[in-house]
Amino acid sequence: MKMLFTLILSFCLIFYFNVEIVSTSPLQYDSIFNFGDSLSDTGNFLLSGAMAFPVIAQLPYGETFFRHATGRCSDGRLVVDFISEASGLPHLPPYLALRKDQLHSFHGVNFAVAGATALDAKFFYDQSIGKVLWTNDSLSVQLGWFKQLKSSLCTTKQECDNYFKKSLFLVGEIGGNDYNYAYFVGGSIKQLRASVPLVVEAITKATSFLIEEGAVELLVPGNFPIGCSAVYLTLFGSPNKTEYDRNGCLKAYNAFSKNHNYQLKRALDMLRQKYPHARIIYADYYGAAMRFIHAPRHHGFTGGTLTACCGGGGPYNFNNSARCGHIGSRACSNPSSHANWDGIHLTEAAYRYVAMGLVNGTFTTPPLRSSLK
Ligand SMILES: *[C@@H]1O[C@H](CO)[C@@H](O)[C@H](O)[C@H]1NC(C)=O
Ligand SMILES: *[C@@H]1O[C@H](CO)[C@@H](O)[C@H](O)[C@H]1NC(C)=O
Ligand SMILES: *[C@@H]1O[C@H](CO)[C@@H](O)[C@H](O)[C@H]1NC(C)=O
Ligand SMILES: *[C@@H]1O[C@H](CO)[C@@H](O)[C@H](O)[C@H]1NC(C)=O
């Protein structure tokens, strides 16, 4: 009887202990490598000149957490910053600022560049829309940077495999700009649907490349619901109410994002078969964002989730002639009361909810927490 009691007690303790570990332990990575665009750039675009978007060098960009502009396209931290924090690691330095002496206590690096595309710049030049690109540092350019850096991290295959086994690779979000550029110069949804398989292929090729280089743990995010973004709502708004869903988002553009995500998930399924030893995790940014778009007040967004905090007027506070940081714009007094920061990007508060959905929630498949080690 006593033994049975002890057994039950220890079972309960073990069970309790496990639950605790699952819910609060930090993620177990020694380093993080991030690829992407403005959703995760921590300074590369600014370091490269930021010709197309110089206002990210000034407040109010960065005002919330860093209290100065860092080159992040938000008021504060991004999803990648919260993932670094959840792993007990420092925020990732931008690759273009990495110094040789930092390689001694290296915990990863960020290759993301604001404005970057999944497809190479040539694709856009071939379609005569190359001039609108903010940057040519597409996903494959970022992979080239990784390859260059790799030689200073490890030499033999064995050494590299051992090194990268303890690393998390974030492949995106990337691809959103491939569509943004085309939509903003007048592309139709029908025309753009044709480019989705190409964008998805660029993302899965990058994922394969990294696995071949030794990555085993990879997180590949889908796209946000673009039909809920202030810039899309402003540029493509319609007097026809049936084009909006119950949250006030443009149905056709959200359907476009969902289609991209669907194709990406299917492509990742195929990659999982090809590389059974790797953990290829899909991150559902769409679902994670939809939670607060659907219930703004429940998440503390008293200023709503569709209207930008920082902008120059208009129904969604996005005005292309007075974008956030430009003359004629102003930022709201409490950015965490808004999900949308500048019409295009989200606030730190919104990114925190997305990160929470990935790290502690159910928006990663398979779950991020049950990692290899
Ligand atoms: C991208 O490359 C093209 C062609 O090489 C060049 O003309 C253009 O200035 C580059 N764009 C940027 C933003 O660097
Ligand atoms: C409004 O949009 C719906 C599709 O969302 C379309 O079927 C309908 O014809 C449109 N109505 C008008 C007045 O344009
Ligand atoms: C947009 O900004 C321009 C330039 O500051 C201004 O003249 C215009 O009134 C603004 N539009 C709206 C809708 O606030
Ligand atoms: C996950 O949950 C833990 C414990 O509740 C919390 O400390 C942590 O901040 C959460 N992580 C994120 C990214 O929200």
UniProtKB/TrEMBL annotation:
Gene3D superfamilies: SGNH hydrolase (3.40.50.1110). Pfam families: Lipase_GDSL (PF00657). Residues 1-24 form the signal peptide. Keywords: Glycoprotein, Hydrolase, Signal. InterPro entries: GDSL, SGNH_hydro_sf, SGNH_plant_lipase-like. Belongs to the 'GDSL' lipolytic enzyme family. PANTHER family: GDSL LIPASE_ACYLHYDROLASE, PUTATIVE (AFU_ORTHOLOGUE AFUA_2G00510)-RELATED, ZINC FINGER FYVE DOMAIN CONTAINING PROTEIN. This is GDSL esterase/lipase At5g45910-like.
